[in-house]
Amino acid sequence: MRTLILKVSPERSEDKVLDIAAEILKRGGLVAFPTETVYGLGADALNPEAVRRIFEVKQRPADNPLIIHVSNFKQIEEVAWMNEVAKKIIDEFFPGPVAVIMKKKDIVPNITTAGLDKVAVRMPDNRMALRLIEKSGVLAAPSANIAGRPSPTNAKHVLEDLEGKIEAVIDSGETEKGLESTVIDTTVYPARILRPGPVTFEMLENIVSVKKGEAESSRYVHYSTSAELILITGSKERMENEAKRIVSEFKKSGKKVGIVSISIEVDADFRIEFSSLEMFVKKIYAALRELDKKADVIIVEGVEEKEIGFSVMNRLKKAADKFYRFD
After folding, report:
1. Using the 8-state DSSP alphabet, how is residue 219 labeled?
2. What is the residue range of 110's domain?
3. d(Cα 194, Cα 305) in Å, to the nearest integer?
């Protein structure tokens, strides 16, 4: 299969790009598309065969449910029973980087929700994504990568994993947030955050009763690199000293070492430095993918675990082969 790369250009308008993509989706095909978080792998959420292909292409476990993406409030009502807590979150944060779990309606196939009687729904804050969904109908859309790999934040990442396996990708450059959406279950009380994300615990607790939890899917490998990934946190001085020691030990054994940092300065074979937490969050997956092509070992400097820092550390802890605290 040849994967079609759809990009707005003087020869191809946005309307034309979206019409081509929507037609593919209506026929049961798979199209990767940009959102404000990461690129999603879209299929008709109400077509069981199309949804089955998502699981096959991604090599995703069948018991890991998918998020349904909508473009308007009428579509939410078509697929889910809205409750009072869900309505408060939706009114405050839709469109935006949060998926709200509600009881599902019968129109949603069991394969989409992995057999559960509830469904996660989100309205992306991205014009092209919303326009695509308007044209195609509601889409099931996990991240557009092989399961277990770092999520894709541009079309190049999508093609690295899925070229020749999906019908098309809409290339709209880099995503805005770089981190997957928050997932919150409103079918329980208090509502439970199953995946932290850009809409943080602190933001949610201002409007609803909420607690932190973990999704069943957290037992699977996520965001993993082929290179050994070492996550470190602690005081700047100790992190620098310990990172230098780790780099030296691996170099002695002939291994190439890459480092992702935000404050420490350590010589390694490859270095990617970020000047702010915002850029670190936005580009961490791209950095991991880049270093994974060159390094045998990747050292990542962790960040303070509060607000968005908590969300990105959730991902890095899952990705890490080793995690060291140097307080």
Report:
1. G
2. 4-219
3. 16
